[in-house]
Amino acid sequence: MSPFFVMSLLFGLIFGQTASLCAPSEYTIHVEKRECAYCLAINTTICAGFCMTRDSNGKKLLLKSALSQNVCTYKEMQYRTALIPGCPPHTAPYYSYPVAVSCKCGKCNTDYSDCVRERVRTNYCTKPQKLCN
């Protein structure tokens, strides 16, 4: 192996996280219930961005800890609750959603994240829209 390759590999392993661009990003969620008259557009923040990953093609040359497939995920979050307008009395009019306070590059935790990219975008309203901040 050439000295340049070895130095590049070490630099990437040591400073890889500093090159990541993972941060809270503005996002709008559209929420509606069949029983309610309106769709609610909620402005929140989610974690989004680029995280340094390492190609597993060199897995025979590297330690397992050096082979990471990190995603941009929540470091700190809080939940807020919004009231969906136009709901009849027998329907729970509340919707709780996460707000990203800070983000990190790490393993995807399925307890609070969808770790699979969805194929069909369904983030839109079919009813008259109300805005919630």
| Annotated CATH topology | Cystine Knot Cytokines, subunit B
Work out the helicity level.
under 10%
CATH C-level name: Mainly Beta
Q: From the alpha-carbon coordinates, what is the Rg to the nearest angstrom?
A: 21 Å
What name goes with the CATH superfamily?
Cystine-knot cytokines
Low-pLDDT runs of 5+ residues are none
Instruction: State the CATH architecture.
Output: Ribbon
Spatial strand sequence of the major β-sheet: 1-2-5
Distance between the termini: 55 Å
What's the number of structural domains? Answer: 1
Q: What would you call the shape?
A: elongated
Helix and strand arrangement:
Blueprint: H1 3-15, E1 21-32, E2 39-50, E3 71-83, E4 94-106, E5 129-132
Parallel strand pairs: 2-5
Antiparallel strand pairs: 1-2, 3-4
Care to describe what's here?
The chain is mainly beta. It has a single domain (20-131), classed as Ribbon (Cystine Knot Cytokines, subunit B), CATH 2.10.90. Helices cover 10% and strands 41% of the residues. It has a 3-stranded mixed beta sheet with strand order 1-2-5, with no helix packed on it. It has a two-stranded antiparallel sheet with strand order 3-4. The longest helix has 13 residues, at 3-15. Residues 21-125 form the Glycoprotein hormone subunit beta domain. Keywords: Disulfide bond, Glycoprotein, Hormone, Secreted, Signal. Residues 1-16 form the signal peptide.
Concise description?
This protein has about 130 residues and is mainly beta. It is about 10% helix and about 40% strand.
